[in-house]
Design brief:
Radius of gyration: 22 Å
Strand order of the largest sheet: 12-11-10-9-8-7-20-21
Strand content: 25-35%
Number of strands: 21
Largest sheet: 8 strands, mixed
C-alpha cells in the first residue's frame, strides 16, 4: 500500500484521531497559558535583517524602519517546553502516528510601530533574547526593553491577546539553549527540488483540467487564492491577517475562515513564508497537509532569517514527504508550466531582482494563467512580488491581476507593461484605524490608469466590509463579482 494512500485515509486507520488531536490542542494551550502567565520566553525579531540591498547599499533593517506603510512587525516566541514538544514530534517516523497526534501551531508577538519606541530594535535583530510577559506596566525601560503588542497564538483557531513583553537586556541566552534551538529548527535539513520534478508534481495534481473560477478570499491583509477547475483545485497561499482592530477580530472575515476550513485542494502553492500567507492553515482540515505543497526555499543569501512558525510548518510537511522547495537563488525565472484543456496554460514564476520590499517578498512565486486565445483572459496572481521583480517574459497584457503586497508602496515603473485596459485589479486589504482603506495612494492611482476597475476584497455593495466571502473571477466569461 502506498504511503499517499495510507496518509489520505489516516482517519479510517486511526480511530483515536479526534482524541489525540484534542490532546495536541490541550498541550498547546497549556504552553500558551504558561507564556501568558509570565514563564520565561526566548524572543527573536522575524522581520528585520542586516543584509544589504545591492542597489541601495542600505540594510533591510534600514529599509524596514523607513517603510511608510509599515504598521507592525513580529517576534518569534519560544520556550523550553515548546522546543521539547517540537523535537518530540519531529522525531516521529511513522506518518500515520504523526498526522494522528500533531498539526502545525503558531505563536508570535505582534508589535505596533505606533505604540512603541524602537531605539533598541537593532539589538533584537541578530540573536535570541530572554523575555517575560508581564501583567502590569510597573517595569521601566531601565530593566530592559518594554513592548506593548498582540500575542498571536493558534492551535486552531487563531487568538489575539493584548500583552506587554519585557525583554531583559542583562540576561543572555545560554549556549546550550542556543544549540537546542539550532538543532530543533535546523533549516539545513531542507533540500531544494528540481524544477522538472516540481512541474511533474503540479501536472499530476491538475491533470489537464481548466480553470473555471478563481476565488480571491476576503481574509484581510493576507492572501488566499483558490483556482477551481472542473475536477481539481489549486490553493495559492493560505493566509489570514486581522492587521487592524485586534479587539474586534472575532467578528471579521468569518465567512472566509469558514470557507478555508472546508477547502479541498489538489495541491498547495505558497508564494512565500510570511505569516499572512500561511497562518490560515490553522483553520483548515487536517487533510490539507496530505497534499503536495510547493514553496520557495525558506532562506537565501540575501534573506537569512526565517520565523520559527514557518520552520514548524515546513518540518511537519517534510516529515509527511509533502513539501517541495524552489531554489530562490536559481537563474531560472520560469519554474513550471501546467498544461490545461483548450490550450490554456498556468505558469509558475520566481521573482528576481531587488526592491524596497524584503528579499522574501522579491523571491516569491507567482502564478500566470494564459488564455492563449481571445476566448480566455490572462490572469496574474502576484503574491508579494513587486512589479520591478516580475519576469519580462509574461504574456502581457493581463485582464485580471491580484495586486502584489496588498497595494503597498513599491516601484511602479513596470506597471504600465502589465496591462493597458485590463478588466480588474483586486487588492487584498482591510481598513486602517481611521477607516481609510489600507493601501498606498500612489500605487492605487497608478492601477486606475491601466484597469477599468480597481477593487478591494472588503468592498461590498452592502457597505459591510466583511459581508462578502471573496472576489470571484469567472475565467471563461471574463467576469468578476462578490460572493
Amino acid at each position: 500500500m502506498k504511503d499517499s494512500y495510507i496518509v489520505d485515509n489516516f482517519r479510517k486507520e486511526s480511530p483515536h484521531y479526534e482524541v489525540n488531536m484534542e490532546k495536541h490542542k490541550n498541550r498547546c494551550f497549556n504552553i500558551f497559558k504558561k507564556i501568558q502567565n509570565g514563564d520565561r520566553v526566548y524572543v527573536s525579531v522575524d522581520d528585520v535583517s542586516k543584509n544589504k540591498s545591492e542597489e541601495t547599499n542600505i540594510t533591510q533593517q534600514e529599509i524596514f524602519l523607513k517603510r511608510e506603510d509599515r504598521e507592525y512587525f513580529r517576534l518569534s516566541i519560544l520556550t523550553d517546553e515548546i522546543i521539547e514538544y517540537d523535537l518530540e514530534m519531529f522525531q516521529i517516523q511513522d506518518k500515520i502516528e504523526l498526522i494522528n497526534r500533531y498539526r502545525p501551531y503558531f505563536i508570535s508577538f505582534i508589535i505596533s510601530l505606533e505604540k512603541n519606541k524602537f531605539k533598541n530594535i537593532e539589538s533584537l535583530s541578530d540573536r535570541w533574547h530572554i523575555g517575560q510577559f508581564i501583567s502590569s506596566d510597573k517595569f521601566t525601560d531601565s530593566e530592559g526593553i518594554l513592548l506593548n503588542g498582540i500575542l498571536e497564538i493558534s492551535a486552531s483557531p487563531v487568538n489575539y491577546l493584548e500583552k506587554t513583553l519585557l525583554i531583559f537586556t542583562d540576561r543572555s541566552i545560554k549556549s546550550t539553549e542556543w544549540d537546542k534551538i539550532d538543532k530543533t529548527y535546523d533549516i539545513h535539513n531542507f533540500v531544494d527540488t528540481n524544477n522538472s520534478d516540481i512541474e511533474k508534481i503540479l501536472n499530476d495534481a491538475w491533470e489537464k483540467d481548466i480553470p473555471n473560477k478563481i476565488d480571491i478570499y476576503n481574509v484581510g491583509h493576507g492572501n488566499a487564492d483558490y483556482i477551481r477547475g472542473s475536477k481539481h483545485r489549486i490553493l495559492y497561499d493560505i493566509g489570514y491577517n486581522y492587521r487592524s482592530f485586534p479587539s474586534r477580530h472575532h467578528s471579521k472575515y468569518l465567512r472566509a475562515v469558514n470557507a478555508i476550513r472546508h477547502l479541498k485542494p489538489s495541491c498547495v502553492i505558497l508564494s512565500h513564508w510570511d505569516m499572512d500567507h500561511i497562518i490560515g492553515c490553522a483553520y483548515a482540515e487536517q487533510d490539507i497537509f496530505n497534499k503536495k505543497w510547493i514553496a520557495p526555499s525558506l532562506t537565501s543569501s540575501r534573506d537569512t532569517k526565517v520565523s520559527i512558525n514557518s520552520i514548524r510548518l515546513a518540518y511537519y510537511l517534510k516529515k509527511l514527504d509533502n513539501i517541495y522547495f524552489v531554489n530562490r537563488e536559481q537563474e531560472n525565472e520560469l519554474i513550471a508550466t501546467i498544461s490545461c484543456a483548450r490550450g490554456v496554460e498556468m505558469k509558475i514564476w520566481l521573482g528576481k531582482g531587488t526592491s524596497i520590499l524584503t528579499p522574501r517578498n522579491v523571491e516569491g512565486l507567482m502564478i500566470e494563467i494564459i488564455g492563449n486565445s481571445k476566448e480566455y483572459p490572462n490572469i496574474l496572481l502576484a503574491g508579494d512580488v513587486p512589479y520591478r521583480c516580475m519576469s519580462e517574459k509574461f504574456k502581457y497584457p493581463f485582464d485580471f491581476i491580484h495586486v502584489p503586497h496588498h497595494c503597498s508602496k513599491m516601484e511602479l515603473e513596470r506597471l504600465k507593461y502589465i496591462s493597458s485596459n485590463g478588466t480588474c485589479a483586486v487588492i487584498s486589504t482591510n481598513r486602517k484605524r481611521n477607516g481609510d482603506l489600507n493601501y498606498d495612494d500612489d500605487h492605487y492611482k497608478e492601477l486606475k490608469k491601466y484597469f477599468i476597475e480597481v477593487i478591494n476584497t472588503i468592498d461590498n455593495p452592502s457597505k459591510d466590509d466583511e459581508a462578502n466571502l471573496s472576489v470571484q473571477i469567472n475565467y471563461r466569461y471574463k467576469m468578476y463579482y462578490f460572493r
